Amino acid sequence: MRHGRSEDRADGRIGVRLPRRRGARGRRADGFELRELFDRVTDTDAVMWGPSIVGYGLHHYRYASGREGDWPVVGFSPRKASISLYGLQTPGAEELIDRLGKVKIGAGCLWIGRLDTVDRHVLEDLVDRAWVRTRGDDVS
């Protein structure tokens, strides 16, 4: 079974929507800042993966069990409780994650409360590292 992105194409581009929840003004502003950072680092268009994940690139995975699917190379989701950052936990990124700031580490993502609790330069380095390594452009 393949899992993938939901595509909402009106003019050939994906419309990226950030949450409009009451009390989420700061999270919404963080979402726009994250989108700018991810856009700049990846030099590609964002794609909505379902209702809340803003993703960049396409990574096809296949497990030994036979399960396979598609997932963004990197992405984020400015959810109500915290911001989820996807694809940044590449091999060797532990030192950067340690320097990132206030972060919770999950199995497949990093969670931050607000963008002002992390070092944006380190975040940019993490996004760049993950983007390059996952796409196979890096030999180091």
Distance between the termini: 33 Å
Kindly report the average pLDDT value. Answer: 83
- Classify the secondary structure makeup into a structural class: alpha+beta
Beta fraction of the residues?
Answer: 15-25%
Order of secondary-structure elements: HEEEEEEHEEH
Strand order of the largest sheet: 1-2-5-6-8-7
Poorly predicted runs: 1-14
Q: Quick one: biggest sheet? A: 6 strands, antiparallel
Rough shape?
Answer: globular
Tell me how many strands there are: 8
Helical content class: 25-40%
Radius of gyration: 15 Å
What is the overall number of helices? 3
What does this structure look like?
With 140 residues, this protein is α+β, with helices and mostly antiparallel strands. It contains three helices and eight strands, in the order αββββββαββα. A six-stranded antiparallel beta sheet has the order 1-2-5-6-8-7. It is globular, with a radius of gyration of 15 Å.
